[in-house]
Fold this protein.
Amino acid sequence: MQSPLFAHTEVQTAEPFALQNDKLLRVRLDGGRDVLARKGAMVAYQGRIEFDAEYRPRGGNRRRTREALDLMRCSGDGTVFLANLAQDVHVVDVGREGLTVDSGYVLALDPTLHWEVISVDSQYGISGTGKYNLLITGQGQVALMTSGKPLTLQVTPERYVSVDSDAVVAWSTALTVQMQAQTSSSGVWRRRGSTGEGWELNFAGTGFAVVQPSELLPPQDARLGGGVRGQFGMDRPTHGNIFSN
């Protein structure tokens, strides 16, 4: 049997996190190294791999953290392939500066990393770009997802950056962040007049902000049989949008 299909063979690398392709993450496990992955993200595996669906992080508010990032622990010897509805996957090395990310865009992360749930307070006292955001610190890697190819904007003291709160994926933790809507307080829940724009995040300091070319909710809550809204997890409350509160 012959076909160009058979050219898409497994990437051979010793790296623990590697991209099999733009939409598929390859994670190498060697018995002493585990990975924390979003529940339901496994599409294939090789070797002797165990999946612990009852994984709970150490410390912190268990209920809030579980809602923010529902994980399974993958352990053993072999290779695990992770994906989520053909979203683009990006591997990020988390350094000393830390990373703040909307939990809806996390595919997998090293268990050596530390994370906690935080909120971004707006001038109107409303929290978050989504219901939850994660502050990730430590040494390790995290795999993020975007709907399409992202844009990374550099922020400097001389160059402020403003982004749509529904499009932002992650940003440098060192940045100063303010959330606001360019509308009157009486119309705070409306999209910005007739422009279709709503809340925005304003970044200042030194670092970067990552946005995706989509304002759709991340589709990790997709369900079959729910039409277009169900496909993108929009037929029930989600964790990815301030308007779901």
In short: Confidence is low (pLDDT under 50) at residues 59-63, 122-130, 185-196, 218-245. The first strand starts at residue 17 and ends at 21. Helices lie at 62-68, 227-231.
